[in-house]
Amino acid sequence: MKSFFEKKDGFIVYRKYPCPCGKSYIVEEQDFTPGHRDVYAFLRCRKCSRSYFIDYKNNHLTWTVSRKSAKKGGRTMHRYFRIHGDNIVECERIVNLIVQKTQPSRYEKKLIAPSTTLVNMDFIYDGMLYSWDIVLLPGFNKNGRTRWEGNIFKPLKDNGSFLDETPDAIITEVNGNTEHILFAIEFCSALQAGNQAWQRSGRALSTGRAGCPYIYIVEFVKYELNSKTRERKALRYPNAAVPYSYLNFAKATDNFVAQVYVRSESFDKTRESSLQEFDESNFAEEELCTYIIRKMAHLDTAAEEEAIFNKSLNIVKFLADTFNSNKNFTSTEWQTINDSGVDIVDYCIANNRFNFHKTMAKKSAHGKIQNLLKIMDKYSVGFTSKDLPIGIIPASRRSVFAREVKRLYREFPNKTIKKLADSEKNLLLCVIKGFKPHGDDNRPDRGSLPLAYMLSNFENEMLTVIYGPILARNYVLLKDHPKRLATNNGLWKTFLALSDYLLLDAPILSDAPNKGVQELLDTSDFKTHYLNSGTSDGALNSNAFPNTAREFHEDDVDTGIHFLFTSLLNAVCFEGMCNPPGGDWSGFSIIDNNLESRWLSLPRVSGYKRPDHLMEVFGAFEKPVLIPIESKERSADLEANVGDGLTKYIKTLIGYVPNATRQYSPVGDWYQTDTTINADRFIMLSGAAYLKDGAQDNDLVYNKSHCDMLFLMSPRYQGWDIEIVPFSENAAIVKDYLISMLPDNDSIALF
Questions:
Q1: HSE of 600 in the Cβ direction (CA atoms, 13 Å)?
Q2: What does residue 489 show for φ and ψ, rounded to 5 degrees?
Q3: CA distance to 105, 167, 185, 457, 542, per residue, from 90 (Å)
Q4: What is the C-alpha separation between 672 and 267, in angstroms, rounded?
């Protein structure tokens, strides 16, 4: 095989070879580092990867392209993977999906560093014996932190992932010193309704356009709860355009970008008539698990991808049938668009069933924005749904639309208005508040523009209208240093990177009274800059960095507490909740009489404190012990009376009927109940966990926090030394019990 590209970088030689079908290529890395010799090759063709693989034979210095075979038996397939996650919970969720599918004959888990978990498993799949080492690395290098020596996001950025939107987890394979990204996963346990449904679309767009397969796991369905009674108020569905945008984007990029719907605790056809027509075979957890295994095993995933796409389309059609057809595309229209391959914007314009109409509360309206909306009503076409903040000005109407905008805002520059009018491209409209009353980001709005492009394509132009309050310092940066603003603020980066024009009719938050801005900016150069930002060769590779974090934070405290209770003390403990940084407050559970009761969508309650962990300990007393724990990096960061707030929160929530219940062992199906749990059946102790290094005096911490138990965490080479300091008789008994039940291990010492 003859290479058609070669580049030398130090001791590394990069070559490209044609793939079997000739439409893409193979990337080879020859590593001639003194004292180290390796060769790596990566098949970058999605089509060929279904039928071929890189075969290193019995060494790692030569390779060939071999056709995949159905032959069974043979040598053990040993591989080394890493899961980089927002937190330990999301890393372990992926491991659990692998275990669920493979049912390994050997499964071992231990800490190999304070932040780092190693999972070893052996299993047979498709007649082959696999031995996998999976390293879990929770806590990304984000928000200015450099806890890891390398940045796993760099290969994505190098290949065009330009937004500050990152997935929950990235799964990689390590060969020697090279780490290759396999796919990324996003989890969502939150209510999928309104703009919450497309809040994470930026992550799909940015990750997917880099060539990285991206899977968004949606727990279906979710209910809006009554804030006072905690009873189910309404079943909320996402707009059908959201799951279809993933299908459209996958076709446009020839990359596997998909939503996977899985059954939630709340799904119950017996109590919800609107679910009667939902076909439960469209839940795709089985295909999801199979895809993960086969992708990691370098096996063909075409069947799983097709099944997931088909099920996703069926869900699009189900959702479409639940909405008003006078204001939304019908299931028949979605099927037609999917089958014909017609551009959605062209279809909207050709059929013109409804216009775009943005509703806005009077208190949110600023300046002339209401008059602008009337102009949009007059010339726009609806973009699949009137419930979306996105519309279309057809190319044929841009000139008259621009004239009326100029008539309304006479101060707008003629040059920009002329450019807005003269283009022959269709113009997408996105009207969003952008910012909350005090100027902080309205996070769901980050997904509005990405949703529009995932439903259409980057060939259309975009006019973004912002009417929410803008911080004065951000407005100054927008005018004078827009790239700096984009670097400092992810929401502004989204606006600048995906908009051809920004129209501001918004208040400016400053000391000056009644100050506002009405301005039209041409931002097309920024959009071009960001869309052309990917310069790499498409290989999602980087140098594998060490497994040990260089600094420790609250994430690491959470990892240590989670590992202690779930991996070492799991014979006598149940983890009812773990919500490290990046979590979503989706719910907590307790065990009572072999029933797991679960409370969902945990609210903020004034004067009370939602815990970061909830542990249930059995056997220390006749009653189970509930320990809600607040975790911090430093003891000084604990709030006053946080211990009282933790116990009050749990007692208050337990007083409401659980949102879902199931048998604990063996595990049963979720169902709804009308029975409350008696809090008197439990002993309640509050806890605080933090790093011991630099901590305040124990008595000082207790007097401030009123926590019954303090967990002082000291990282060591291969895990943690955890000192438990009790401040009540019951807490002292629980401490002694936990120490007595801790098995011999190399990961955690408890004293």
A1: 21
A2: -140, 115
A3: 24, 10, 9, 31, 22
A4: 9
- Tokens representing 153 are 């996001």
CA distance 581 to 86: 8
Whole-angstrom Cα distance, residue 662 to residue 239? 30
- Residues found in the chain: 751
Six token digits for residue 288: 């999801």
Helix, coil or strand: residue 661: strand
Contact in structure between 287 and 307 (CB atoms under 8 Å): yes
| Alpha carbon distances (Å) from 9 to 14, 174, 516, 557 | 8, 20, 53, 40
Q: What is the DSSP string of 456-515?
A: S-TTSEEEEEE-S-EEHHHHHHHHH-HHHHHHH-HHHHHHHHH-SEEEEEEEEESSSTT-
Rg value, the chain, Cα: 27
SS3 558: helix
Q: What is the pTM of this model?
A: 0.89
> In this structure, how many other beta carbons lie within 10 angstroms of the beta carbon of residue 542?
20
Q: Which residues pair with 630 in a beta bridge?
A: 688
- Spell out the residues 6+ positions from residue 687 whose beta carbon is closer than 8 angstroms to its own: 613, 627, 628, 629, 630, 643, 646, 707, 708, 709, 710, 711
Q: How far apart are the first and last CA of the chain?
A: 62
Residue type, 628: P
Grouped pLDDT means (10 residues each) for the chain, 751 residues: 83 86 84 70 76 67 71 67 96 97 95 96 91 95 87 94 94 94 94 86 96 96 88 90 97 96 93 92 98 96 98 98 96 97 96 93 90 97 96 98 98 97 97 88 88 94 96 94 94 96 94 82 96 79 94 95 98 96 86 96 88 97 98 97 97 95 95 93 98 98 98 95 98 98 96 96
Q: How many CA atoms lie within 13 A of 259 on its CB side?
A: 30
Helix/strand/coil (H/E/C) assignment for every residue in 643-654: HHHHHHHHHHHH
Give CA–CA dist 330/323, Å, rounded: 8
To which residue do tokens 């975009």 refer?
Answer: 462
Burial class (CB in 10 A: 0-12, 13-18, 19+), 288: buried
Kindly give the pairing relationship between strand 501-509 and strand 470-471. parallel
